[in-house]
Amino acid sequence: VDAVREGRVIYDNIKKFVRFLLSANLGEIGVILFSLLLGLPLPLLPLQLLWVNLVTDGLPALALGVDKPNENVMKRKPRSKDETILKGMFWFIFISGVLGTIIVLGLFYLYLGQSLEKARTVALTTLIVFELFIAFSTRSESSIFKLKRNKWLWMAVLLSAVLHLIIVYTPLNVAFKLVPLILGDWIKILIFGSLGFVFFETKKLVSN
User: Fold this and answer.
1) Fewest CB atoms within 10 A around its CB: which of 25, 92, 121, 199?
2) Over the stretch 44-85, which tens digit does the pLDDT of each residue have?
3) Global pTM?
4) Cα dist. 50→153, 199, 205 in Å?
């Protein structure tokens, strides 16, 4: 019984890990692809894309791999041996990717009138904030407010946020071609960057 329970927990956490990485990377692909199709300057430079993958696809994804089990983990029927690990993920991944693309490109276009570096800083920061919020929604089909707290995920998100603040507000911003943001910028970024999280958590509450 313990072995079955542990196996189910590991499998669930692998699914969370995969769901998060695919939804995050689909958004990144969408941002680059549609900026090219619309004839816009690149919203993210290669080094900035690498940074996104480091701070969002690394620590939070690993923290999801050690998430605590759901209460109903042993109440589910055995899954089919033919079931793929992607079962039930498609719409989450698709909607997350589309929302991330629209939000990041929208803010990038809005800030292009100020400067390209400012627009890229806002786009990069919005994408990171969006993905960090989404990490919480990938944990379960149940509302996050009904789950046990994952301290490792909170620590990973906090560390990722601090690392990003360092490259925005220290001389490292020269290497990343970023500029410091003001309070008004952060208000827009946090509001729009949390829309994916708000959408999925509201959908869970309504569905349940």
Assistant:
1) 199
2) 999 999 999 888 878 888 888 888 777 777 888 888 888 888
3) 0.90
4) 21, 27, 35
